[in-house]
Design goal:
The protein is α+β, with helices and mostly antiparallel strands and 106 residues long. It has four helices and four strands; from the N terminus they run ββααααββ. Helix 1 crosses helix 2, helix 1 crosses helix 4 and helix 2 packs antiparallel against helix 4. The chain is globular.
């Protein structure tokens, strides 16, 4: 199956991660990776309901990491791991992360 994650900061700044040929991340490893990034980047929950939804973690980690983590070659491994974790946790072949509007599309 072809999996792809797009992370966007608007029309002029869209980063596509084609996961064809990339080893998939299992759900538990993906959850641990995303949780570690959420903590390391000092992310704050979007909603005040007490529970942090997976989509909220994906959005806040992308936002906290910033566009540089998706655009610069020195962060390529981190960005691919973000895409692998996002794909595994959301379970969709195509995921679009729109950072400015804080939305995820499939």
């Amino acid at each position: 199956m072809h999996n792809e994650v797009d992370v966007s900061w608007g029309e002029a700044a869209n980063y596509r991660f084609d996961l064809r040929g990339v080893e998939p991340m299992d759900k538990e490893a993906a959850r641990e990776w995303l949780d570690a990034q959420f903590t390391a980047l000092e992310c704050e929950p979007i909603r005040s309901v007490g529970k942090v939804l997976t989509v909220d973690k994906v959005l806040t980690v992308a936002q906290a990491a910033g566009e540089d983590y998706f655009s610069k070659p020195e962060h390529r491994e981190w960005a691919v791991n973000f895409a692998r974790a996002t794909s595994a946790l959301l379970g969709r072949p195509i995921v679009r992360v729109d950072v400015p509007s804080m939305t995820i599309g499939y």
